[in-house]
Amino acid sequence: MMFLSLRHLLARKKQSFLILLGITIGTAAYVAISGMMLGFQTFILDQLVNNEAHIRISAREELLTKESLKAFPEVKHVFWSLPPSGRKDSSKIEYPMGWFSKLDLDPDVAAYSPQVVSQVIFNQAKVTRTGRIIGSQFERQMKVTNIENYMKVGSFKDLGNSGNRLIIGSKLMEQLGSRVSETLLISTGNTSPQPFKIVGVFETGIKGIDESTAFSSLVDAQKLRGRPSEITDIAIKLFKPDEAQTKSDAWKVSASDKILPWQESSASILSVFKTQDIVRNSMTIAIIIVAGFGIYNILSILVTQKKRDIAILRSMGFSPSDIVKLFFNQGILLGIIGGIVGLMIGNIICHIMAQIEVVPGRMSGPGNKMIISFATIIYLKAFGIAVLSAIFSSIIPARQAGKLEPMEIIRSGGQ
Amino acid sequence: MIKTQNLTKLFPRATVPALKSINLEIQDGEFVSLVGRSGSGKSTLLYLLSTLDSPTEGNVFYDDVNVKNISAQEIFKLRNKNIGFVFQFHYLLQELTALENVLLPARKAKVLEQRRPMGLKLLEEVGLKGLEKRYPSELSGGEQQRVAIARALIMEPTYLFADEPTGNLDSQNGQMIIDLFDKINKEKGTTIIYVTHDKEFAARARRQITLADGALV
Asked: Nearest-CA distance from A12 to chain B in Å?
């Protein structure tokens, strides 16, 4: 019946073309919008996942309460005129060696990097900015994050293991009015300021990081903090980032430190992505539904118009299922052709968008180009939606046509 | 051979049956016209004989096989290979050329290419040589009806049923159609059964079956 289905479509070129156009636009829109949104999402996710750590273990900030004094069992009856309050003076990971041996043995851990993270005040002449300094061993840090990819000046290795060298976020350096190889004064607030020399600049494209963060060696950061050999954080990279949540849930059972997988630390952004996905999907589904109704309408009208043809075909020995195929094929053909053309147009739009230069910022990737995803799943989904909507919208009129009895058509004079 | 046994047809919501207990036998190779006033049941009889319609009571036998006992698939095959139809309205598919229309039953039987020479020959026989590539809209009513006859004959059926084949044509074209039936019946031995209310055309058949109020006269 494909032959006759094709002839029916070709006999109504304008109608077929319009329906095709609807499906094509729907499919192309899905591909283009998904490419743009998913490209943006993967870029951001990549930064979230790989710039920070898959799992971050950090010291718990402990507040003092009445219960804190239970640590001294010999004190039985204590009455406070003013209950104790405040917090422990410093946060540190209590037993880092325990973590290290545990992480060394864990087969899922790709790398880890002990860190000292402190809130500091950067000082250049009369300009001050607050931010944080992350002290780490550069070899380990480079294994855990891909910070090296975002280096604008110098290499992350230039940090060395000591010597008060600093790698600074591009925005932060700009705000301080500073330059590479100049020296900044950095203070934690309760220790005396120490000079750090800028040896490198990084730019992740994420404003929050670029305007507040600097890296130093682990030893220098410990000295700055006035607490040698303490660490505050351990950044961990897993072989499979998706397992971060389950991994940290397992660790939480036996640990007193704070364990944060990337899914939790970037929950707000992930929820934005979800909203984006809903908008994207509902928009495309709306377009496809319109196209689907188009197919349904046209086929229903066609079935009514072609009653005589159905009667004559049935009198020649064509079966009801042949008649169903005659109309069903037309819907499917429109779906498949519209889908394929839509995929191609969507792909072209994506390629064009990938060439567009955008204002540097969160949306921009390397070279300030828009980041577009060309993931196969987008194309599979788009094509699937097009074909499925065609199937759903043509099955009803096609089956109605199959149910028509030739005698009833003839008796009614084919009307 | 087609045989009927107490063939009765009562349409839904009708009080009087359209056909009342018809017993009839038509031998292979006969040239039969069904005549009667409008409402006499002649078309109803034709469609019952041709398997397109089913009786309320009674049976139709094809070579002693009861049509009721033939499976749906076999009926489709029977219509495809052994029965040809010609209707009052020429009922050609507008999207297909004359030749493609003629070859449609062959396409269903998956013998399209084998039957192509015969399709051309049939179109020539009905006087349409050179018009094979024309679409129905480019043909006159008489020409379209002749294409429909060629289509009915493409599978070399045993039976050809025609419901008022001349009803929509002027007398000259009508004459031509009946002449063609006569020729087909003589040359190919096809059993032809046609309904007409034109006395002159009815008289051309070698056997006339007259109906009045759903009964044989």
From this structure: 10
For residue range A103-162, what is the model confidence (pLDDT) as tens digits?
888 888 889 999 999 999 998 888 889 999 999 998 999 888 888 888 888 898 988 888
CA distance B186 to chain A (A): 23
Chain B's closest residue to A311, CA to CA, is B91
pLDDT tens by residue, A277-329: 898 888 878 877 887 888 898 889 888 888 888 988 998 889 999 999 999 99
- Using an 8 Å Cβ cutoff, are A231 and A56 in contact? no
Tell me the count of A-B CB pairs closer than 8 A.
Answer: 65
**Pairing state between β A213-217 and A165-169:** antiparallel
Say yes or no to pLDDT of A69 above 80.
Answer: no
Residues B5 and B51: their CA atoms lie apart, in Å, by 14
Dist CA B93 CA B87 (whole Å): 13
A309 touches B: beta carbon within 8 Å: yes
Distance CA A227, CA A89 (A): 12
Phi and psi, residue B159, nearest 5°: -125, 140
Instruction: Say if the Cβ atoms of A3 and B79 lie within 8 Å.
Output: no
Q: Which two tokens stand for residue A95?
A: 């037993």
Query: What is the nearest CA distance from A6 to chain B, expressed in angstroms?
Result: 10
Q: Which residue of chain B has the CA closest to A11?
A: B95
Q: Which residues contact A36 (CB under 8 A, 6 or more apart)?
A: A350, A353, A370, A372, A373
Separation between Cα atoms, residue B92 and residue B102, nearest integer Å: 9
Give how far A43 is from chain B: nearest CA, Å. 53
A388 contacts chain B (CB < 8 A): no
pLDDT of residue A147: 84
| Better-predicted residue by pLDDT, B103 or A149 | B103
Under the banding of pLDDT at 50, 70 and 90, the label for residue A198 is very high
What's the pLDDT tens digit per position in B65-97?
998 999 989 999 999 999 999 988 767 888 999
Is A313 in contact with B104 (Cβ distance < 8 A)?
A: yes
Q: What is the pLDDT of residues A17-55, one digit of tens each?
A: 888 888 898 889 889 988 988 888 888 777 777 777 888
CATH homologous superfamily, domain B2-216 = P-loop containing nucleotide triphosphate hydrolases (3.40.50.300)
Residue corresponding to tokens 């397109």: B52
Question: In chain A, which residues have their Cβ closer than 8 Å to the Cβ of B107?
Answer: 3
Contacts of residue A90, Cβ cutoff 8 Å, sequence gap at least 6: A227, A230
Chain A neighbors of B19, CB-CB under 8 A: none
Partner-chain contact A317 B78, CB within 8 Å? yes
